[in-house]
Design brief:
- This protein has one domain (2-219): Glutaredoxin (3-Layer(aba) Sandwich), CATH 3.40.30.10.
- It has 10 helices and 7 strands.
- It has helices at residues 23-27, 29-36, 61-78, 84-87, 101-113, 117-130, 139-148, 153-163, 166-181, 211-219; strands at 2-4, 12-18, 41-47, 57-58, 97-98, 189-194, 199-202.
- A hairpin with a 4-residue loop joins strand 6 and strand 7 (199-202).
- The longest helix has 18 residues, at 61-78.
- The protein is globular, with a radius of gyration of 17 Å.
- The two termini are 32 Å apart.
Length: 247
Amino acid sequence: MAAVNDASNATATLHYIFDPMCGWCYAVAPLVEAARAVPGLQVEIHGGGMMTGPNRRPITAQWREYVKPHDLRIAELTGQPFGERYLEGLLRDTGAVMDSEPPTTAILAAESLRAGGGLDMAHRLQHAHYVEGRRIADADVIAALAVELGFDAEAFVAAFKQLSGEATARHIAESRQLLQRVGGQGFPTFVLAQADGRASRIDTGPWLGRAEDWKAHLAEFVGPSQAVATASAAATPAMCGPDGCAI
């Protein structure tokens, strides 16, 4: 799925492999939004299914104590907000289950209805989770968020039902294959594919909290005088593993 300024004029594609339940994907959300504003750059999102099937987990006191320092680190590095309803509400809601599959289906449904809708939905889901403390794996919450984004309620529910199950599983499997193919270690992973076929992972670590600088950096790889993107030799940036942020 993709979001672009103008798909016909795109000269490079930034592949974003992520998970809606990944805190470090929330950390790079401002970078994703900045990338969408780079002329000639297409942004394509791939949901990796970090917390699906046997990797789904309920929220517990142990989980809360595990994620708190990571959330604090993300806030310090990026300025991303973590709301009181998340910190003292959702993280204490032991009836909530973290399941990446329904929000991933929501992203697919949104993209099927509107070009760029998938990234809009991903951004809204992250805000709902980390700021508003909402259960983003619940169908009623997802449907409400879709309406907030301007989708027709009936059309969205129909698309969500159509893309649930096999279609979402196929998307996740393809995203996992892409992650393996590019040598990614987890979420988030960014790969820049240029018009001449060159493709390379880009380390977002140096750009956390620097969305405008990141935007300018990406612009160097787009257009007639493209710079050559090369894999970063930096240490692996903070990320969640492909099967969860294990305790």
